[in-house]
Write a structure and sequence with these properties.
With about 325 residues, the chain is an all-beta fold. The chain contains 1 helix and 21 strands. Helix content is about 0%, strand content about 45%. Strands 12, 13, 15, 16, 17, 18, 19 and 21 form an 8-stranded antiparallel beta sheet that branches. Strands 1, 5, 6, 7, 8, 9 and 11 form a 7-stranded antiparallel beta sheet that branches. A two-stranded antiparallel sheet has the order 2-3. The longest helix has 5 residues. It is globular, with a radius of gyration of 21 Å. The protein starts with 17 loop residues before the first strand and ends with a strand.
C-alpha cells in the first residue's frame, strides 16, 4: 500500500466520477475504469466481443497514435497519486501508459474538456500485465479531469486517482452546508479502529446501500470506546448533526457524543446520547463557537453508516 492510497479516490463512480470520452471501447466499456471494488474475472466467459473483462479494452490498433480515456473527477482536487490496475489483462495489456490532468470550470462538454490545456502528471511509464501500478504525483494544481493514455492500445481494469478534495464552495455563499461531507472538503484524519471498513465511508456522498458502505469497528473487549475525528470543510459553526445507523441492525453503537475542536479548545456539541439500530438520527445542537474538527465518539463500539454535520462556514 502506498501512502497516497489512504486518501479518497477522487475519480470513483460512487463519488460522482464519470468517464466522459474515450478513443475506443471495442472490447470492454470505458465506464469500468472507475467502478468501486476489485476487478472480477470468470475465465471462458465469452460474449459477442470475445472474453468478457471487468475493465476498459480497446481494439488492436493498426494506425499510428494511442488510445485514451477522459475521466471527470467526482471530487475535484489536488492529485497525490494514481493507480493503474491491469488486473486480469495478461496478453492484452498496454505496455506503456501516461496520465494528464486539467481544470475546467462549470459543466463543460467532452469537446470543451479535450480542447483545454493539459498537464502531464504521470510520464509515459512501463506497465506489466495483471498488476497494480502506483505512481506518486508531485503536481500541486487543482484538477477536475484526468486523461489516461495507453500506448498503443489494450486493456486497463481500474484507474484510481487519490488526492485531497478542493471543491468550489462559492455556490454555498450565505447558505448552510454539510461541513463534514467529503465532497465539500471534509476528511477523516484519525480513528480508533477500522477493522471491517474505512471510516472515510461515513462522510461519503449518498446513502449507504449496505453495511460495508459504512464504518464498522471490531468488538471491544476493554472499557474504552471507539472514535473518529473529522476535519471540517472549513472552520465553521455546526448546528445540526445527522448520525445514521442504517443497515446496522445488531452492531450499532449504544450511544454517541460529539466534541468540537478548535486548536486547544474543546467544546461539547452533543453530550452522550442514545442511538437506535438501523435508524437515521437528527440532533439540533446548541450554539457553540466555530470549530475546525469534530470528534465522534461511539459507545462502546460498532458501526455508523453516515455522519452529516450541517452548519455555516465561519
Amino acid at each position: 500500500m502506498t501512502p497516497f492510497t489512504s486518501l479518497p479516490d477522487l475519480a470513483l463512480r460512487a463519488y460522482g466520477g464519470s468517464v466522459v470520452a474515450a478513443s475506443d471501447e471495442s472490447f470492454a466499456e470505458k465506464e469500468s475504469l472507475i467502478r468501486p471494488g476489485r476487478p472480477v474475472f470468470r475465465p471462458e466467459t465469452f460474449g459477442n466481443k470475445g472474453q468478457v473483462y471487468d475493465g476498459w479494452e480497446t481494439r488492436r490498433r493498426r494506425t499510428p497514435g494511442h488510445d485514451w480515456a477522459v475521466v471527470r473527477l467526482g471530487l475535484p482536487g489536488v492529485i497525490r497519486g494514481v493507480v493503474i490496475d491491469t488486473a486480469w489483462f495478461k496478453g492484452n495489456y498496454p505496455p506503456y501508459a501516461s496520465v494528464e490532468a486539467t481544470a475546467v470550470s462549470g459543466h463543460p462538454s467532452p469537446e470543451e474538456v479535450l480542447a483545454a490545456p493539459w498537464t502531464e502528471i504521470v510520464p509515459r511509464s512501463a506497465l506489466k500485465g495483471d498488476t497494480e501500478h502506483h505512481f506518486e504525483v508531485a503536481d500541486e494544481g487543482r484538477h477536475t479531469h484526468v486523461r489516461l493514455n495507453i500506448h498503443p492500445d489494450g486493456g486497463v481494469a481500474r484507474l484510481r486517482v487519490h488526492g485531497e478534495v478542493r471543491p468550489d464552495l462559492s455556490a454555498y455563499e450565505g447558505l448552510g452546508l454539510d461541513l463534514a461531507a467529503l465532497a465539500n472538503g471534509g476528511l477523516v484524519t484519525d480513528c480508533s479502529d477500522e477493522f471491517y471498513s474505512t471510516p472515510e465511508n461515513v462522510i461519503a456522498p449518498g446513502l449507504a446501500r449496505h453495511q460495508a458502505e459504512g464504518w464498522e469497528t471490531a468488538r471491544r473487549r476493554d472499557r474504552g470506546n471507539d472514535w473518529l475525528v473529522i476535519r471540517l470543510a472549513g472552520r465553521g459553526i455546526v448546528r445540526l448533526a445527522e448520525i445514521d445507523t442504517t443497515n446496522l441492525l445488531f452492531n450499532a453503537p449504544g450511544a454517541v457524543s460529539l466534541t468540537g475542536l478548535d486548536g486547544e479548545r474543546e467544546v461539547t456539541l452533543l453530550p452522550r446520547t442514545r442511538l437506535q439500530p438501523d435508524t437515521p438520527h437528527r440532533f439540533r445542537l446548541d450554539p457553540a463557537g466555530p470549530v475546525t474538527h469534530v470528534r465522534v465518539d461511539i459507545y462502546p463500539d460498532g458501526g455508523l453508516a453516515r455522519v452529516r454535520l450541517h452548519g455555516h462556514l465561519a
